[in-house]
Amino acid sequence: MSRQPTIPWMHRWSRLLIAATAGLGALTTAYLTVVKLTQSTAACPTAGCNTVLNSDYATVLGQPLALFGFLAYTGMVIFALTPLAISKEEKPELYSTLENWTWSLLLVGAIAMSVFSGYLVYLLTFKIQAACLYCIASALFSLSLLVLTIIGRAWEDVGQIVFTSIVVGVVVLVGTLGIYAVKPTAAMAELPPESAALSLLPFGQPIPGIGWSITTTSGKAEIALAKHLQKIGAKEYIAWWCPHCHEQKQLFGKEAYREINSIDCASSGVSPRPECQAAHVESYPTWEINGKSYEGVQSLDQLAEISGYTGPRDFKNFSGAF
């Protein structure tokens, strides 16, 4: 009498482990999505989390990057659990089909997420230069999903894994570079005032050299924070044509923003001003506070935190609505 081969424990539990890992990733990215959409401050032991969330890299196609991460993790949960909802004994053909297809989808998804996460870690390290614990955790989740997918079943053709990894990796990397190639940078200061791109914005075209008018008013807390930032020598590097810079102004309000030491890098012509080049400004707005740089729109709470502000925080402007 022949004995049935013993199924390795990893193969028995791999789908549940993948679903659990992807579930943790979904929860993490869902939280970051809510923080980004509400423009609130992330609960994080370092200021890096909010620096990353407020950078230009945190938005893709007009939506929070974390939202796409949430959708990807949710998809992985679905792929991992779908075959488990089918009875192998009652519907063997359907079960076998779903088993094979979902493993292929899990492999493609895990490779794509790992490559993209690797690029984001590169951005964290060399571009944004900030430590975001949530981002690092998400990268580890993605890598774990790839490892679990590879060792979670007996792949009949190892070459399939290698070939799929190369194809998917190249496609994702090229697509990622293409998406971030259009990230607003200091080079955009070379756009002429009559640029069609600016005229297509929903709030109209800015006044050359000035930008858009600030329509919000300031409360006492906003004014106190602005004066504090001025007192400690904080600088904000902006460009008059930059929508995100206008969003930052709206958060302060017109009265408070008069106190801000803002440097318009695009006001002197097609090239950034020398002080902007010396500060290595790569995107707008960029804050320079206590010797450190912070890219992107910063919430007032975040500015208060990183600048050591101890005054009132009952800020009235929570949205930079145009």
How would you describe this structure to a colleague?
- By secondary structure, the chain is mainly alpha-helical.
- The chain has two domains: 9-180, Up-down Bundle (de novo design (two linked rop proteins)); 196-307, 3-Layer(aba) Sandwich (Glutaredoxin).
- Helix content is 54%, strand content 6%.
- It has helices at 9-38, 48-53, 65-81, 92-128, 133-151, 158-180, 196-199, 220-231, 243-252, 254-257, 274-278, 300-307, and strands at residues 59-60, 63-64, 235-238, 262-264, 286-289, 292-295.
- It has a four-stranded mixed β-sheet, with no helix packed on it. Strands 1-2 form a two-stranded antiparallel sheet.
- Helix 1 (9-38) packs antiparallel against helix 3, helix 1 packs antiparallel against helix 5 and helix 3 packs antiparallel against helix 4.
Give the arrangement of secondary structure elements.
Blueprint: H1 9-38, H2 48-53, E1 59-60, E2 63-64, H3 65-81, H4 92-128, H5 133-151, H6 158-180, H7 196-199, H8 220-231, E3 235-238, H9 243-252, H10 254-257, E4 262-264, H11 274-278, E5 286-289, E6 292-295, H12 300-307
